[in-house]
Amino acid sequence: MTTPLNLQQQQHQQLQQAARTVRRVVVEVVDARNLLPKDGQGSSSPYVVADFDGQRKRTTTRFKELNPVWNEPMEFIVSDPENMEFEELEVEVYNDRKFGNASGKKNHFLGRVKLYGTQFARRGEEGLVYFTLEKKSVFSWVRGEIGLKIYYYDELLPEDDRPPQVPPPEEGGPPPEQEQERGRPHGVTIVEEGRVFEGPGTMEPPQMHPHCMPFPEPQPHSPRVVVVESPPPVVHVHHDLPPGTEIGGGGAGAGGPPEMMQYP
User: Fold this and answer.
1) How many CB atoms lie within 10 A of CB 29?
2) What does the alpha-carbon distance between residue 231 and residue 234 come to, in Å, rounded to a whole number?
3) 224-228 and 212-214 beta bridge pairing
4) Can you point out the beta strands (E) in 15-68?
5) 91 to 54, 73, 118, 137, 201: CA distances (angstroms)
6) Given 3.30.420.40, 2.60.40.150, 1.10.10.10, 3.40.1180.10, which CATH number is that of 21-158?
């Protein structure tokens, strides 16, 4: 039975494995056959442009060649290997007008091929495949075919290029909210002669009065209450003295009776 903790650990391992590798797609342009002449001199100077996953790369130009040979690989990084089969690869062939007397400001379109990730082979299983060049619109005039080798592979990243790893969740550990609550100081409530003071969490508790009695230890998350009692009143009682005896003059040393204190 899969528990939520085991599921989290499996997802964590998958993320760590994905972070250690990168997938690359290689489009090797081998050659083209029977291209259409568009340079105004009965030939073309073709080059190839490939677009994949937001990346665009091109080959060199082959001067005045209707059956050019390139053997040039172009490498692309797959941003989402899980959905690579849905990514589109577009390969287009153009005539480089800088090498002829062709008119116009743009390079002439010689044909294109559209492929998807499901047609890519794993490295070591690829083969040379010739694709018929297609039109871009109904007004396009193209002919010929292009030979491509397309494959992918997963590359292990060096230690320095790997992203920082996220530590896996600890089994039985408290949630982050409890960890934050554990280190948070609690406030202190002071009750003194009918007045209540609420102190901040970082406030130092007051010094205990000699006649104070603390309440039992409060429960977690409740303020600490300290009751400060006033000292008991003192009542002075004097015994009846004979007439003529001075009070408070000399105490026992003056011949009078000692002064007595009585607590209620």
Assistant:
1) 27
2) 9
3) antiparallel
4) 21-33, 46-52, 55-58
5) 13, 13, 16, 15, 67
6) 2.60.40.150
Q: Which two tokens mark 42?
A: 């009965």
Tokens of 249: 């003059």
Cα separation, 96 vs 202, in Å, equals 76
Using left for φ > 0, alpha for ψ between -120 and 50, and beta otherwise, residue 106 falls in: beta
Q: Please give the backbone phi and psi of residue 81, each rounded to the nearest 5 degrees, phi first.
A: -60, -30
Q: Where are the alpha helices (DSSP H) in the chain?
A: 4-20, 176-182
Residue ranges per structural domain of the chain: 21-158, 185-238
State pLDDT tens for residues 12-59: 566 555 558 999 999 999 999 999 999 888 999 999 999 999 999 999
User: Residue 96 is encoded by which pair of tokens?
Assistant: 């480089």
Q: What is the pTM of this model?
A: 0.55
